[in-house]
Amino acid sequence: MFGLDKKDSTLLIIVALLTMCAPFILNPFPSDSGLAQFNAGYPDLMQRFVIFGIFAIGFNILFGLTGYLSFGHAAFLGVGSYSAVWMFKLLSMNIIPAIILSVVIAGLFALLIGFISLRRSGIYFSILTLAFAQMSFALAYSVLTPITNGETGLQLTLDDPRILGVSQTADGSIPVTNLFGLEMRSSFNLDVGPWDFTFSSGYYVCAIVMLLSFYLSIRIFRSPFGMMLRAIKSNQQRLNYTGLNPKPYTLAAFVISGMYAGLAGGLMASMDPLAGAERMQWTASGEVVLMTILGGAGTLIGPVLGAGMIKYFENIFSKINDNVLHTWFSFMPDGLEDFIVAIVHPFVGKGWHLTLGLMFMMVVIFLPGGLVEGGQRIARLFGRKKADAAKSAKTEPAE
């Protein structure tokens, strides 16, 4: 299907089903339940799941296939966001031109940075990309304020000279981003008993783009180009001895990865027309590294899983405060309740990074292949049990 083998087609179908049914899957608890705070089916968070999934998929093409660890990919995310907002200000509120410009500008920026950074490898390459990202952050924050609006961030105003659209609507407000008339913030609520499901136009647009990006990554992984990138990761020196120059391949992977980041930045601005310098900080680059390693570097679905887990922790797990903890342990005696809350408190709420750090340590130590390796181990365990059961049930002829 679509030029993929059976295994990859099955994986693509599974990801498509999970993505399309996300409003149901991410809202497992009734709205009036005490566990409703663990629901993640609201549009803004679902959009972040798929947008950062695109970001991680692109980063995985560079890091997972070639082994080149970049700490500067947030620069392309920020450049994509700025490009999209400028397109909204100058041309139209349609998201298609904005996304196209985001991908193109991010690709050109990645070509420039990659051409310089890829002259080195290993830790030197990582430091160079980090330096470029911090330079981009400093430029956006303080030097290029006429273009980026500095620390306030670039946003739409009522004075924007929009060529193919109005600067303000009939009621005097700023127009909404749209896809040929379909507003990105429009949504539909479905009430099924105590459950409340929200279907957002913006989410499904992002989800379709993510599926297309995921399909493209599969084709890259299975292509001769992808095999060459794996060879570079395996033993670049041996590849040099064969007479092949790996630099054009690594530069191409770097540019493709940067274009994915620009696409993610453009989608972020399309859902919320605002671009700030904070998207270029080194912490954003480190976040995508965590996503990829946590999910499984070099795997197809791993980065998407890692992005979903980190964004879930950031938006859901971080909201568990002392009041919630006291509600959970209210059945205990007062002294014991306070003791348990005091122990759990550093790991939730504002301390959610501690829990994430411990989880990351355990994954790196016990599951070097990330969450995907954990799933594979569980699958093999159940497969072995079934095989043992079938073997024991088999009747052996008497001798």
UniProtKB/TrEMBL annotation:
Chief site of localization: membrane
CDD domains: TM_PBP1_LivM_like
GO cellular component: plasma membrane
UniProt entry keywords in alphabetical sequence: Cell membrane, Membrane, Transmembrane, Transmembrane helix
GO MF annotation list: branched-chain amino acid transmembrane transporter activity
Topological relation to the membrane, as annotated: Multi-pass membrane protein
A Pfam family it matches: BPD_transp_2
Domain of life where this protein originates: Bacteria
Record field: transmembrane: 12-29, 49-71, 91-116, 123-144, 202-221, 288-313, 354-372
InterPro entries per record: ABC_transp_permease, LivM-like
Localization of this protein: Cell membrane
Protein name: Leucine/isoleucine/valine transporter permease subunit
